[in-house]
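Homework help board

Subject: predicted structure for assignment chain

Our instructor gave us this sequence and asked us to write out the predicted structure in token form, then describe one feature. I got the tokens but I'm not sure how to describe them. Can anyone check?
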Amino acid sequence: MDQERKPVSTARAASALGVHPSTLWRWHEKGRITPAWRTPGGQARWDLEELRQQLGIHARGDHVPEASTKPEPSPVVASIVTSDLGVLIGRRNDGKPPWTFIAGEIEPGESAADAAVREVKEETGLPVTAAEREIGRRVHPKTGRTMVYLACRPIGKLDVFVGDKDELAEVKWASLDEVQELLPGLFEPVLAHLQRELGS
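My token output:
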């Protein structure tokens, strides 16, 4: 198989087309393009030649323009809050997905750490501190949104409650085994962090 036909990651495929990875995922959500296959962890892999055919691009390196007036969606921060009780997760009302880490959009002018602290406080009532460095980031394979994962630790008591009843039905502390069952296909850097924090 030549290099051109070897399936590549979303980031590499987007780079080859000269677009942002989130643009690639918007096209995918609209049914305009389809990945060549997915890894066992759910990551999409793209055949560049097939992708260009789906988009109607004939010359290698042609740029597929997006509307320049369309605003880019804000990144989403996922707060990976751990304590002696486990990791903090929430059950979504819409079931998309059923369970999630406490997460929300980073507002304009806000740092990922500030957004993480704000979201956890708003959604669970828990005051936390956020790490200065990310656990990792990626374009989410299902939503196409840029996700920033931040480690957080509670300040004081560990009591939590549902602060945003429109979004969440339940919040709770989960063990490592439980979180792997409720949130299948965890982003590998997050799983490695949880294994360090909660024990393998």
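Reply (TA_rk): Your tokens look well-formed. For the description, you could write something like this. The beta strands are 37-38, 44-45, 76-83, 86-92, 99-105, 128-139, 146-154, 168-174. That's the kind of observation they're looking for.
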